Amino acid sequence: MAEVKGQVLVFVLAIAFIGCVVSYDRPPVRKNISILQPKQFSSTSPQQVHISAVGPDKMRISWITQSSAPSVVEYGTSAGAYTESATGTSSSYRYLVYKSGQIHHVVIGPLDPNTAYYYRCSSDSTRQFSLKTPPAHLPIKFTVVGDLGQTGWTNSTLQHIAQSNYDMLLLPGDLAYADFVQPLWDSFGRLVEPLASQRPWMVTQGNHEVEKIPIIHSTPFTAYNARWRMPFEESGSTSNLYYSFDVAGVHIIMLGSYTDFDPDSDQFKWLQGDLGNIDRGKTPWIVALIHAPWYNTNTDHQGEPESDLMKQHMEVLLYKARVDIVFAGHVHAYERFSRVYNGQADNCGPIHITIGDGGNREGLAKRYMDPIAGISVFREASFGHGQLEVVNATDAVWTWHRNDDDVSVVSDAVWLRSLSSSPACKS
Ligand SMILES: [Fe+2]
To answer: Which residues form a coiled coil (predicted)?
Structure first.
């Protein structure tokens, strides 16, 4: 670990040096990408494949076929040799004049940890996929990216993520930026499939997932809930919009910024129960994800109830439970805060990090408030992604990777110490 710490120190010094001598011109918005269905696909070809963790040793495989096909996944640890199979369910939805394909969800397992599996969907022999399960114990490496969208910058970010050898991706909302245009959900599914079919992508919702139109389509989250089903039942949640899970020694909490969060709400009560059930011996780290940031010195998205009211209601719960990190999106920039609680630096509060810079079509949020709040440690409006490597029960390293044109450059790096290992923060 000393070697890794040394490397991070070199990174930090190099960044400081480069920052002194090179000014970085922030690039403009890049064009939207639209990924069409490949011509060779039939109506029953599996497409838009993505996977998500379910419990300690299972994985949900999700995919879409244009017409009816069996909801079956065949899998095994050797390419082409499928020793196991599992059956699930499929459904479709309507949104105005759009009708989705058949959306399949199949849970496979039990699976061995940190192991490669090969699989195929709907018994289609023309497309074989592979995945790697997360490790059962630390260390584990997460990629964190928000407000991804589907532009040339998204492509750049995805290429950098592909090189990062991560175990699991965490996404704090705003996926496709379909914004009512349902074929864009299909395009997004195709865009992320090469990565999302290989490693679990665990997501929560943002404002661009709501897609509610008064009277015409009054049900929110129709496409999101149908396409991106997450393991909510396993954590006692009654909604796909908030849930939690354990992975390798980290308890991950996905909160819903766009569903009820007041003290009488189901989400609030569920969160209270969930935080009360955490075994810090088993999961010494706690990480929470929201969409609208509770701390933000950018001029964008100030004063929104999803930020201010949710913080007012729920911050004390996360503080008392000694949550280590809160990731947010929504603001299209990167910002890292100190440990903070109730607006003040607090050594027992979570570190808040805004990572809403995945590459969406709305562009960067470049204007910041002046003066800088004392708790904002690093902020920059550039596209990029983050990596959280939890090394052991006490230490983790966080790096933010800026898309410097098309090269991934580590532009912020910090070592973190878990609150569960701090005698002064024993809860
Ligand atoms: Fe957003």
So the answer is: none
